[in-house]
Amino acid sequence: MAECVRVDSSTSTHTMDKSITLPPDEIFRNLENAKRFAIDIGGSLTKLAYYSTVQHKVAKVRSFEHNTKEAASDKLYEISVQEEVTARLHFIKFENAYIETCLDFIKDHLVNTETKVIKATGGGAHKFKELIERKLGLKVDKEDEMTCLIKGCNFVLRNIPHEAFVYAKHADSEFRFQTTHPDIFPYLLVNIGSGVSIVKVESEDKFERIGGSSIGGGTFWGLGALLTKTKRFDELLQLASKGQHTSVDMLVKDIYGGSYGSLGLTGDLIASSFGKSATADKEFSKEDMAKSLLHMISNDIGQLACLYAKLHNLSRVYFGGFFIRGHPVTMHTITYSINFFTKGEVQALFLRHEGYLGAIGAFLKGAEEDNPNQYSWGENYAGSSGLMSVSPDMNPMQRARSGTFDMLEMDRLERQLVNLPLLQDPSSYIPDTVDLTEDALAREYWLYCFEEALDGVVKRAVASQPDIPEATERAEKFRQKYRHKLQTLRHQPFAYGSLTVRSLLDTREHCLNEFNFPDPYSKIKQRENDVALKYYQKAVKSLEELSWEQRQFALVRGVLAGNLTPSVPCEQRPWLVDSYDQWLERLKGPPHKCALFFVDNSGVDIILGVMPFVRELLSRGTEVVLASNSGPALNDVTNGELQILTERIAAMDPVIQAGLREDRLTLVQSGSSSPCLDLSRLDKVLAMVVRERQTDLVIIEGMGRAIHTNYYAMLSCESLKMAVIKNSWLADRLGGKLFSVVFKYEVPAGKPSQDSAALTPS
Amino acid sequence: MLLSSTVDSTSTHTMDKSITLPPDEIFRNLENAKRFAIDIGGSLTKLAYYSTVQHKVAKVRSFDVLFVSVSQEAASDKLYEISVQEEVTARLHFIKFENAYIETCLDFIKDHLVNTETKVIKATGGGAHKFKELIERKLGLKVDKEDEMTCLIKGCNFVLRNIPHEAFVYAKHADSEFRFQTTHPDIFPYLLVNIGSGVSIVKVESEDKFERIGGSSIGGGTFWGLGALLTKTKRFDELLQLASKGQHTSVDMLVKDIYGGSYGSLGLTGDLIASSFGKSATADKEFSKEDMAKSLLHMISNDIGQLACLYAKLHNLSRVYFGGFFIRGHPVTMHTITYSINFFTKGEVQALFLRHEGYLGAIGAFLKGAEEDNPNQYSWGENYAGSSGLMSVSPDMNPMQRARSGTFDMLEMDRLERQLVNLPLLQDPSSYIPDTVDLTEDALAREYWLYCFEEALDGVVKRAVASQPDIPEATERAEKFRQKYRHKLQTLRHQPL
């Protein structure tokens, strides 16, 4: 059955003061411009969704006009901070007890909206219809519950990379997040509300309820209440987690004295749930009965799910509904049951934002004219609570802070993101090299690093806005927010999916943006670009004086050196990972058709490292596509900056100029604003160019893109990954030392190239 | 799970345990009993033995033509000679009684067992372990344990092959509750869903090949155990009786309780149970024992029904037999299981039940012990004279019958002299039904024919006596025949099945 929403139960309605004052900075953000509303009212939780626009400060670069005299300063380009409006989806979850307070709050803060209608779903939508219409003056428009649920599910599976996870109670990391499959269909959704609905989803608009069961969350709750006189769902689960089912259940060994070998039944298997209470004349403890009940229901649902999955040939089974939502106990029993019945063939998958599916779906129904599915969306880590933020078992500190409000914010990305067409196997591609959720030592180290570095980041943020007095205050707010996120991640590393260096970096960028520090490095980048540009011609000239073979080596060293602070000498060969000889051999062969080059830093790196390398490729007859970030991240060169730089270089270098003119050198943006690189979420235009140009070489440079991410990425064409390891811990991990060099040239297996030996670190 | 036998459930409280066993009626032909098997469940014992029976048979013989001239007497005007001879045939006896009687029965057997060379008794069922020592001491036979599931399947194959109207469909509201199935020449493959304490779902592919493909811990023991906790009623039968009087809608949350009506887009009608016991989660009220028992019964039956359907579909099986103590002789559970199967398969799969389901384990255990005699090579026929009918011991049904036979239920099977097969010329052996009118389904016809046979009884008795003019006690035997047959007719009037 679909009724997950009717009996949302997990958070308490007794312990909270119902007349709270809502903190406007933190929840219901950006209400002023809210355009479109949807609400999903369950038995005890309300989920509100709205679409709003957010004004952001963004740093823009603009070339000085050549013909104006004043512009002839020593600066290369002009930086301006502009206001930009982006679209954001807000989802808030709160207890039904607050609904009136929340509606009042919304009414008061809703400034300019032309919205007349609010989409509603969930069992409670009916009950609160009148209240909503009266308070908000909006017409309540009911949407089908299951349709909303499925729509929401499709949306999160497509747009949130680490949405789905496997639960493993006794593993080092309880939550193992799944990488997004490019194709999410078909899948099975098992929604455990009062009852159970088993739904096969075949495409965006096609789904079918293929089965269900009346033995669901309501049965656990109802029978549990009758047996234990405990009326609250959470308390029942707590009882269950303390009980011993073996005192109530009849096990195989209770009947046969051991296992039943010929049938393959082990002695500990439950032969009959509650079998002992049929004849034993004794009292059973509440805990034991609750546990037996939990096992009985979870096993039953698990078996049904497996059978339907087999019958319909589906390998992905997602579980949701209030029985599951945020309850490690039920996730564990369901997982156990699925493993038992399928012998590991099917995995039980859970969703981070499962509680929001109905609200998301209802919202999408209402927003169909805006084609939300045409865009890519990204989770905003700054504005989203993590997984389990309101689970009573977990992290009471976090719970106290955020009240019982749980939030999800998603930014509409300017560009639609797709896979790099050159990924060998998109479905198994994992961008991140180390999963910090699974590696406690690595996690400790990196969380410590980011905390240590925080002061420096704050200083730089303040320094980037010297003329704005309140920058210090904002920087302080940023510090608090990011430190809090780090603390949360220390306790709940799984809060936002797999914890990785990339997610830590991205969270920092989101938080900086949140407090209007769109590009703290803009001035530094500008200065470094200025300086480096002055040496460009000299550098090119000295390279041309070298022999061919010397030059090839010098070019590589140039890229590596650009990755270094000038004072550090480049490591002597052999490097930590060293396939330079193979690369050199390859260069003696025919030129590549087209190289895709993911660039890294501003200044020396791009101008004196990358550009000469590009120049050599162009000279060899290879087309080059330079991919740079769409938005700022640290001192990485952005697409806007790179355009100006390239123009300037073209003005002094006929090779680059010819490349641009003949369209053999193309600049594209990656679609990313991260110091790392996710090859499964790249700008659609980039993917198109890569395909059109028949790209046969991918070059990735820098620690963020080639080490933290993509170190193990397998491509279907030749690839070159170059970086200097500027972190001693990481160097140690990879078996090297600080400033070790990684030069990884790989040729995919089965592609005969000149010399196809690809090296991996020894 | 299998375990039907551990929790057989008929009452052990109401009977006088020191009964005198009537030797004419039960444990017949013990004197020549050769081979024993026993299946001891949680409360019922099923005993099987093989014996030989001396029968009088009428033989005809042509007069020898060569003798005509020699013996004048033979040259009568009669075509052939009739003689009554003694013939020995093999018969299988199965008796079911409550565990409470086991000691009395063992003593009785010991006393009446005259000439047997048997050294071993095959045993199966959860109770076999418990009573092992007693049996060995009383009978002086070695108890040889056999695998429970193997016995169950062997027994099931045997009855499906040898008893024509073994399987039936249950339809509560039809004119006839029981619709018997004609025997398929090929009984394999089939699915056996054994609902004991737990549920075992077994796929049977051939005489010797079966596999437990699934199961569930939500079975008869769950109904009993949860029922006992919820209603403080400790007896299985009473729980079923409570259930049959209850209203599940006051405890269960229906689709219409949530959506105010049906949920059309998902194809769910308003009366469908959305959540078993869903109303007791939040409602602050007391629920009646009857209603809770009913809700529990629906919950368990529906769940088993759905699982059975899914396994049947997954393994492409259309014949699904249900057994185990949860089912055995209980119209209430047969009804809810049937309902559930119909709901989940939309009629594609029928729930089938077996008349002799309670004997399967004992039959199988016996067959295991008798393998050297190749019992499967022969055809066997149910002996109506020596067998109790379906539900003879069901407490709901026919209390008169129950009082008469105590709690003993019997099945006797005669080994037929010749192996019987289909006429090869039948167009479709699987749909062939020999009988023109099914009196179970046709109440008027049934009335008429039962009346006819009762009317004709006097004439038959007279003819029987007249056929043995020289034997003085023929009148007495004919009277016994009259009583027995009249009783059978009466039984059939009440239980046409």
TrEMBL record, chain A:
Q: Which GO terms describe its molecular function?
A: ATP binding; hydrolase activity; metal ion binding; pantothenate kinase activity
Q: What is the predominant subcellular site recorded for this chain?
A: cytoplasm
Q: Where in the cell is it found?
A: Cytoplasm
Q: Does the keyword Transmembrane helix apply?
A: no
Which coenzyme or cofactor does it need?
A: Ni(2+); Mn(2+)
Question: Its Gene Ontology biological processes?
Answer: coenzyme A biosynthetic process
Q: Per UniProt, which keywords does this protein have?
A: Acetylation, ATP-binding, Coenzyme A biosynthesis, Cytoplasm, Hydrolase, Manganese, Metal-binding, Nickel, Nitration, Nucleotide-binding, Phosphoprotein
The answer to whether keyword Mitochondrion applies is: no
Domain (Damage-control phosphatase ARMT1-like metal-binding): residue spans on this chain: 452-737
Q: Which CDD domains match?
A: ASKHA_NBD_PanK-II_Pank4
Q: Name one GO cellular component term.
A: nucleus
Reactions this protein catalyses: (R)-4'-phosphopantetheine sulfonate + H2O = (R)-pantetheine sulfonate + phosphate; (R)-4'-phospho-S-sulfopantetheine + H2O = (R)-S-sulfopantetheine + phosphate; (R)-4'-phosphopantetheine + H2O = (R)-pantetheine + phosphate
Name the Pfam families for this protein.
Answer: ARMT1-like_dom (PF01937), Fumble (PF03630)
Which PANTHER family does this UniProt record tie to the protein?
Answer: 4'-PHOSPHOPANTETHEINE PHOSPHATASE (PTHR12280:SF20), PANTOTHENATE KINASE (PTHR12280)
Q: Which family does it belong to?
A: Belongs to the type II pantothenate kinase family. In the N-terminal section; belongs to the type II pantothenate kinase family.
Assembly and binders: Homodimer. Interacts with PKM.
Outline what the protein does. Answer: Phosphatase which shows a preference for 4'-phosphopantetheine and its oxidatively damaged forms (sulfonate or S-sulfonate), providing strong indirect evidence that the phosphatase activity pre-empts damage in the coenzyme A (CoA) pathway. Hydrolyzing excess 4'-phosphopantetheine could constitute a directed overflow mechanism to prevent its oxidation to the S-sulfonate, sulfonate, or other forms. Hydrolyzing 4'-phosphopantetheine sulfonate or S-sulfonate would forestall their conversion to inactive forms of CoA and acyl carrier protein.
Record protein name field: 4'-phosphopantetheine phosphatase
Q: Which species is this record about?
A: Lates calcarifer (Barramundi)
Gene that specifies this protein: PANK4
UniProtKB/TrEMBL annotation, chain B:
Name of the molecule in the record? Pantothenate kinase 4 (inactive)
Q: Which GO terms describe its molecular function?
A: ATP binding; hydrolase activity; metal ion binding; pantothenate kinase activity
Where in this chain does the entry annotate a coiled-coil region? Answer: none
One biological process GO term for this chain? coenzyme A biosynthetic process
Entry's Gene Ontology cellular component terms: cytosol; nucleus
Highest taxon of source: Eukaryota
The UniProt entry, under InterPro entries, shows:
ARMT-1-like_metal-bd_sf, At2g17340_3_helix_bundle, ATPase_NBD, Type_II_PanK
Could you tell me which PANTHER family the record lists for this protein? 4'-PHOSPHOPANTETHEINE PHOSPHATASE, PANTOTHENATE KINASE
Which keywords belong to this entry? ATP-binding, Coenzyme A biosynthesis, Hydrolase, Manganese, Metal-binding, Nickel, Nucleotide-binding
Q: Which cofactor does it need?
A: Mn(2+)
